[in-house]
């Protein structure tokens, strides 16, 4: 086989755009729920998406394996397999009623690169691997970067009992149903950071920065971390709306409103001081079975999501959340149960990879801008292991986590071309 392989200095292999379009179309068929895409983590849709990537890989003669948690690895072998590998990848699960490009774009991009190399007969100096992770979307299991964490052996076995949000069935049971081996958690062979040269993840942008800048590709400087309360509840007391004066009320909604406005004002002050963060209350609801027009609300459920690249700021804001919870308890005669806190650590992208990407983009006449990622990604797990890591964003209209994601295919190909050149430059090094 080696005699038929091209040298590492061969011209750029040709990307199969039609293959990419077919894979996206098939992913749409797999995930379409009547409005958007729904491929739950460790669910049938995610299984079928992984099977699709595996089938295309086999057709192109690529190596395929799965780890104990059913993460998928697709590899084109290097000439010196003892060298640290170059890696790329993303995920194939979605949020409920999401779009077809979040996560999937990065997985498809890596697949197109490896398939193009295989068709061209190009064999890199070192192994180059696409990982299609499981369960990146923590809406299903409240665990950040679940798939990539399992790949590095970072999952606490106690978390295998975590129920999935839609059906209450444990992560362990869902893993078993997908052919994974949760009994190997903590014992199976996992990725070793010393064996990885770098990790580069392509992803759609999930905000408007590239649209505003009118450029197709972003070079990411860092990934925000988060502090979250996913199941906070304010307990007050239901009472007649007309017969209960204010001084006798335990109004859960007013307590929540006061708490949220205080945190929002703190956010405004943070920005005025030149720091960056976001604050979101994505759920804020009364009990539909008991709340009504003529009753003082006795219960409010809410979620709190704070993100920043500054870990100290995240901790300060977390302290403020607790402080405000205690304040409204006193001011409004309520009880605030914040519930468990979940968090993820900010990640800084590798300066060398950023510089390489910028230089390559200039040589390819691809307009780029440098930017931060407000959303979390599997790349943060790789960076957290000390692996040189970079992300490439592709322009995408209408945001993300909704059915209206609108990535132009030409923009996608700009991103894939830059990814291919960057991976090949890294993989060709002896």
UniProtKB/TrEMBL annotation:
The protein's matches in InterPro entries, at most eight in alphabetical order, are given as: Amidase_Cbmase (IPR010158), Bact_exopeptidase_dim_dom (IPR036264), Peptidase_M20 (IPR002933)
Which keywords annotate this record? Hydrolase, Metal-binding, Zinc
Cofactor section? Zn(2+)
Where, if anywhere, are coiled coils annotated?
none
Write the Enzyme Commission number(s) for this entry.
3.-.-.-
Q: What residue intervals traverse the membrane?
A: none
Q: Which residues bind allantoate?
A: 228, 292, 307
User: Which residues are listed for Zn(2+) 2 binding in this entry?
Assistant: 102, 137, 401
What does the Swiss-Prot or TrEMBL cofactor note state? Answer: Binds 2 Zn(2+) ions per subunit.
Which GO molecular function terms does the record list? hydrolase activity, acting on carbon-nitrogen (but not peptide) bonds, in linear amidines; metal ion binding
- Family to which this protein belongs: Belongs to the peptidase M20 family.
Q: Which PANTHER family match?
A: ALLANTOATE AMIDOHYDROLASE (PTHR32494:SF5), ALLANTOATE DEIMINASE-RELATED (PTHR32494)
Name of protein: Putative hydrolase
Q: Which organism is it from?
A: Komagataeibacter saccharivorans
């Amino acid at each position: 086989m080696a005699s038929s392989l091209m040298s590492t200095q061969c011209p750029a292999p040709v990307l199969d755009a039609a293959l990419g379009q077919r894979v996206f179309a098939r992913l749409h068929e797999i995930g379409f729920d009547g409005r958007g895409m729904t491929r739950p983590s460790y669910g049938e849709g995610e299984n079928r998406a992984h099977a699709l990537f595996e089938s295309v890989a086999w057709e192109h003669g690529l190596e395929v394996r799965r780890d104990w948690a059913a993460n998928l690895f697709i590899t084109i072998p290097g000439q010196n397999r003892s060298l640290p590998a170059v890696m790329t990848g993303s995920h194939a699960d979605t949020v409920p009623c999401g779009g077809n490009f979040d996560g999937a774009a990065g997985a498809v991009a890596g697949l197109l690169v490896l398939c193009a190399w295989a068709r061209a007969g190009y064999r890199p100096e070192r192994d180059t691997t696409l990982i299609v992770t499981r369960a990146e979307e923590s809406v299903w299991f409240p665990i950040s970067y679940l798939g990539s964490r399992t790949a590095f052996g970072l999952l606490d076995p106690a978390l295998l009992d975590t129920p999935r949000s839609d059906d209450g069935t444990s992560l362990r049971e869902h893993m078993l149903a997908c052919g994974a081996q949760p009994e190997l958690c903590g014992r199976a062979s996992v990725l070793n950071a010393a064996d990885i040269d770098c990790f580069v993840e392509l992803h759609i942008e999930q905000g408007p920065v590239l649209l505003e800048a009118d450029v197709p590709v972003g070079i990411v400087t860092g990934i925000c971390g988060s502090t979250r309360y996913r199941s906070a509840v304010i307990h007050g007391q239901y009472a007649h709306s007309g017969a209960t004066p204010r001084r006798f009320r335990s109004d859960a909604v007013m307590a929540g409103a006061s708490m949220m406005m205080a945190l929002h004002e703190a956010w405004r002050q943070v920005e005025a001081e030149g720091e960056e963060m976001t604050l979101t209350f994505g759920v804020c609801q009364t009990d539909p079975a008991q709340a009504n027009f003529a009753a003082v609300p006795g219960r409010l459920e809410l979620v709190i999501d704070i993100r920043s690249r500054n870990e100290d700021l995240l901790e300060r804001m977390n302290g403020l959340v607790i402080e405000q919870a205690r304040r409204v308890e006193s001011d409004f005669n309520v009880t605030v149960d914040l519930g468990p806190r979940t968090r993820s650590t900010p990640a800084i992208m590798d300066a060398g990879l950023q510089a390489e990407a910028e230089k390559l983009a200039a040589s390819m006449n691809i307009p780029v801008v440098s930017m931060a990622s407000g959303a979390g990604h599997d790349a943060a797990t790789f960076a957290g292991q000390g692996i040189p890591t970079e992300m490439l964003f592709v322009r995408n209209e209408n945001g993300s986590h909704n059915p209206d994601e609108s990535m132009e295919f030409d923009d996608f190909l700009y991103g894939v071309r830059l990814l291919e050149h960057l991976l090949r430059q890294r993989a060709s090094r002896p």
